[in-house]
Amino acid sequence: FRMEKPSGEDVDYSKVRSREARRADPLVQTALDIQRYLNIPSVQPAPLDIGSTDANVAVGMGIPGIAIGGPYYERQHALDEVAEESSIIPGTKMLILLAVSLAELAD
User: Fold this and answer.
1) CA 77, CA 43: separation in Å to the nearest integer?
2) Which is it for the CA torsion 4, 18, 71, 84, positive or negative?
3) Which residue has the higher pLDDT, 53 or 2?
């Protein structure tokens, strides 16, 4: 679908790639490799490409995007939201390793 931005420019979200292409993208595969390397458990058996994340706009425009990192939470966006303390360091390590790995891929 298309959405008009306030300045009048259109944003086209119809360029989303197939599920297979999205999951095979080096960005996704690198993130999954790092997750496995760090033994960070996945909450799902396969990478998710559904739901609402900060990556949705990019993915909808055909640009590879992922939403990763940080701790596991309970009661997200509620006043009593809490993070699992033991997940903070592994999530941070994943972000750092992903940044370094992607910088290497860019060279």
Assistant:
1) 19
2) positive
3) 53
- pTM value is 0.72
- Supply the DSSP symbol for 17: P
Which two tokens mark 6? 């306030």
31-45, pLDDT tens digit by residue?
989 999 999 877 665
Structure tokens at 54: 């900060």
Short-list 60, 43, 44, 50, CA closest to 2:
60
Residues in the chain: 107
The token pair at 71 is: 């701790």
Q: What is the DSSP string of 21-62?
A: HHHHSHHHHHHHHHHHHTTPPPSSSS----S--TTHHHHHTT
Give residue 104's pLDDT.
Answer: 82
